[in-house]
């Protein structure tokens, strides 16, 4: 039954996209922001970490528990579909990426900078075409894991409650997982638990990128470059994706007014507008691969227990 629920949720996301109003994640984000403002007052490191753990538990445990209970009631499979649909962001990711692509091919740099600014946290006001394309491809590859494959992985393991757990934890990491004075300690648990939840999905995402693109290059870049990146999970995903696309990612980027020289990932030429389109297609092919593997696995398990 899991493959049917998965495909239905993916179809809903493709048909409807993310809700324009009243998206549960938006409400969750407001609640998380309010709670953080109440608890995070630059305490000593140990106290700040304890408060960060408390905030994480307050926000996630009730949501996960309620989702678990409801999806195990009669006809709970309907809620499984709805919860996975809300956890997915495949259409939104594709639309954001192609919005940058369209602006670049129309030579509209201001529109391209605005569009990529909706996808990344770096400064975008002075980016040139290559830098815009690089930032967009990096975001498409990394968020392919965060907005699609991680949610699918935990859905397969735990149903709709697993998708809820993953996406809410990922949202808290995106809000609190910064190494700034404000979040260095308070956001520590949010960052570490997101790393833990992503440990397996990120590597499966990297493998799927390699298999759905230039496989040898993707696997080689994953092996040789992933460890150089700052995130233990984004490294494999972006290195394998860059290699699969035969493109160079990383390099200089500006954050909060300061230039940061990042490791180089991938191989081949610099990113262009066409690379954005190729990255979107790579994520699409990987999604199809995941559906095929999950369907085949379900058939095999059913045959084994028959």
TrEMBL record:
NCBIfam families: cobal_cbiB (TIGR00380). The keyword Hydrolase does not apply. It is a multi-pass membrane protein. It comes from Methylobacillus rhizosphaerae. The lineage of its organism: Bacteria, Pseudomonadati, Pseudomonadota, Betaproteobacteria, Nitrosomonadales. Converts cobyric acid to cobinamide by the addition of aminopropanol on the F carboxylic group. This is Cobalamin biosynthesis protein CobD. Belongs to the CobD/CbiB family. Pathway: Cofactor biosynthesis; adenosylcobalamin biosynthesis. It comes from the Bacteria. One of its GO terms (molecular function) is threonine-phosphate decarboxylase activity. It is found in: Cell membrane. Keywords: Cell membrane, Cobalamin biosynthesis, Membrane, Transmembrane, Transmembrane helix. Its main location: membrane. One of its GO terms (cellular component) is plasma membrane. Signal peptide: none annotated. GO terms for biological process: cobalamin biosynthetic process.
